[in-house]
Amino acid sequence: MRSNCLLCPRRCGVDRSAGELGYCQCGDKLVVARAAPHFGEEPCISGSCGSGTVFFSGCSLRCVFCQNSAISSGLRGKEISVGRLAEIFSELEAAEVHNLNLVTPTHFADKIVEALKLAKPTIPVIWNSSGYESVETLKRLEGYVNIYMPDFKYTSHEAAQRWSGARDYPEIAKAAILEMYRQTGSYVMDGEGLLRRGVLIRHLILPGRLDDAFDVMDWVAETFPGDEVLFSLMSQFVPLADRHEYPELSRPLSKEEFDRAYSYLSLSGIGNGYFQELSAATDEMIPDFDLTGV
Predict the structure, then answer these.
(1) What is the mean pLDDT of each successive set of 10 residues along the chain, which is 294 residues long?
(2) In-domain check, residue 95
(3) d(Cα 210, Cα 130) in Å, to the nearest integer?
(4) What residues make up the domain containing 97?
(5) How far does the chain reach from its first CA to its final CA, in angstroms?
(6) 48 to 130, 167, 218, 265, 275: CA distances (angstroms)
(7) Distance between CA atoms of residues 107 and 56, nearest Å
């Protein structure tokens, strides 16, 4: 009997159990590139002991400027079983990290739930994704995920199509974030300033795309007034896209663009969150996908 994969909004319908590959470039086996404490997230995530981060290979969005392209498109990583993933979760928790941080997990959602059932973690579980999520799939995660950390990359259909091949991204991301918030409610911090539950929305400022940044901030401020969600404005864009095919992405963010985005954030009405200094735009932020912990 054919098993059609409909986990992500692509709904490509391939039978991954029969060896077919989806848009994510993955078949039926979990593929992981790194599992280790990570200190490069927002302070409420990394804390002092690090975030127990599992980097999954493959991606259902595959942006042309992705900093993790070695695993999102290059598929560097190792195939593992659900049982081994559960062991990894337990090993990270034993290392006294603050949370389990699942990076680019969407195309393995069902298997991740199986592993969480086996591991039964007692620390928060983070779903760290592109924001390009099916509401139906998100509903399967309810009760297993404590913190959602989605990107909200674009409000422009044209930019979403050109750089991610997903013209429907703006509508999909908004619906997904609303479902994430329905599950978690307003964010909750503990006494050490660590996020225990809630939604942290990220936006990476892209060169020449301040309108997207402004629109995203407007939507967050209007949709979640007050202190209901956290917001992170990121300036760590590194020009990694093909310079010939995407010349508009061949330069870093300018100081003027950063200053304008930061000023807009200051006046946006968004209650709480974070912003990166322009100096964060370096490839030093990119982890080594060397199978550590796998």
Answers:
(1) 85 91 92 95 96 96 90 85 98 98 97 98 98 98 98 97 98 98 97 97 97 97 93 93 94 95 93 84 76 95
(2) yes
(3) 19
(4) 33-285
(5) 32
(6) 26, 39, 32, 27, 19
(7) 9
Tell how many helices (H) and how many strands (E) occur in the chain. Answer: 9, 10
- Is position 14 within any domain? no
**Confidence (pLDDT) at 1:** 55
User: How confident is the model at residue 71, as a pLDDT?
Assistant: 87
d(CA 207, CA 91): 40
Closest by CA position to 64, among listed 7, 9, 130: 130
Q: Is 143 among the domain residues?
A: yes
pTM of the full structure: 0.96
Q: Look-up: residue for tokens 């709480």? A: 272
In a domain, 17, yes or no: no
Per-residue confidence (pLDDT) for residue 2, from 0 to 100: 58
Q: How far is 54 from 121, CA to CA, in rounded Å?
A: 14
Number of domains in the chain: 1
Q: Which residues are paired to 127 by β-bridges?
A: 102, 148
Tell me the angle at which helices 109-119 and 82-94 cross, rounded to the nearest 10 degrees. 50
Query: Which contiguous run of DSSP H or E holds residue 200?
Result: strand 195-204
Contacts of 191 (CB under 8 A, 6+ apart): none
Q: How far apart are CA 247 and CA 95, in angstroms?
A: 43
Cα separation values, 77 from 148, 257, 270, Å: 24, 36, 38
User: Tell me, what CATH number does 236's domain have?
Assistant: 3.20.20.70
